[in-house]
Amino acid sequence: MPSAEHESPVALAKLDPSLVAWLLTNVFNVKVPDYHHARAHPTDVRVLVPRTYHADGMLLYCDPADRPLLAVVLEIQRRWDATKRRTWKLYVAQLETELDVDAALLVYCPDSRTARRYRGLFEFDGLSLTLRPFIFTPNDVPLVVDVELARSNPALAVLSAICHGHDAQVEATFPALMEALRAVGRKTAILYYDVVLAGLPAAARTRWEAFMTTTAEYEYRSELLRELAARHEEQGEARGEARGEARAILTVLDGRGVAVPAEARERILGCTDLAQLDTWLRRAVTAPTVDDVLGG
Fold first, then answer.
1. Contact (CB, 8 A) for 288 and 7
2. pTM of this prediction?
3. 196-214 confidence digits (pLDDT tens)
């Protein structure tokens, strides 16, 4: 079952691609070329057989003329899947062939045991094409408590809090995380705040919201939550609330550019279970596809 907590690294990478460059450089000692900017790349990988493979995210790091210098495939892997030994190679090979640049595969595994299995999967590839995936876990992400570091790298501060959400010391990140939000524009801060709310486990999220309420000079209120509040004010009955939450889900997905086929849209609008709608809404903040929102 997809979890917003586990999808957050891809959402953060899309908000600030420099986070991926930081991870490659500081966690894996990879030389990232000097780039002017980075942009998202379509994540569908098509082959001659009528089938499309879909990566969780793809980024291109480019020069001032928008020519790609480096491509990065982003994957979130929550459970074991032996087929990744071949499909991950397909993602990388397709990008390198299409763009004529090196492509890195960056994989986030929330579970350390799962990460070890995937690392072992690529140690001995025999006659097959060799792939070197860069696999990291929450333990590889530092606990960001330094305010200056958080201000200079807000996405890392957010990722740090999410990765250490189950740790007792997660509250130590809150002051730096608040300063990270203040360091970016209001619109971007709201997007980051959404990712924090979706990514933290319930207990840590409650402590974070309490910290912000008592410490921050003003309340961050996301467009997502503002949409919910407006819907709830307009619709007092349970059916109206469900309809409002369903439309909020579609609003969030539309704002993030996630395609929603007619069948999925009808399923969302037809749901009257508020608990289910709330689960879908939290997933919608970071999930890469509508299937990840509705799955499970």
1. yes
2. 0.64
3. 888 888 888 888 888 887 7
